[in-house]
Specification:
3 helices; 8 strands; 124 residues; eight-stranded antiparallel sheet; globular
Length: 124
């Protein structure tokens, strides 16, 4: 089932490299507009994109508020980002709902040179 929005976390991700990748993957995006600590732009189809540097420690968040992307879910988005950018990527193993337990919210998948692995990441 396609997620209504997708989010990944990038370790030491370079915003310009991310911008170049997004432009190639989903079409030209508008220039980033800084709003406090957050940067926002829009994909070619108008989908809002948010880049939050150091969202969790040194991890940067990349969030697309649309189901109209080439990626069906967070994991597909993470795999594509790792392939394009070569930095460790973390994502939720599936869509998370507010009614799920806190323990379920701590389950993550990391993708790096060693492959994919599920682990516990306490971000709160």
């Amino acid at each position: 089932m396609r997620q209504p929005d997708i989010e990944i976390y990038l370790k030491d991700g370079d915003q310009q490299a991310v911008t170049d990748w997004l432009n190639a993957a989903i079409g030209p995006c508008t220039p980033w507009q800084r709003q406090g600590q957050t940067f926002k732009c829009q994909a070619a189809d108008g989908a809002p994109i948010t880049w939050l540097p150091n969202a969790v420690g040194k991890w940067h968040s990349l969030f697309i508020e649309s189901e109209r992307t080439p990626w069906e879910d967070d994991l597909a988005f993470a795999r594509a980002a790792f392939a394009a950018l070569g930095v460790q990527i973390r994502c939720a193993p599936g869509g998370w709902q507010e009614e799920e337990s806190v323990d379920a919210a701590d389950r993550w998948i990391k993708i790096d040179d060693t492959g994919e692995q599920e682990f516990i990441w306490r971000t709160h």
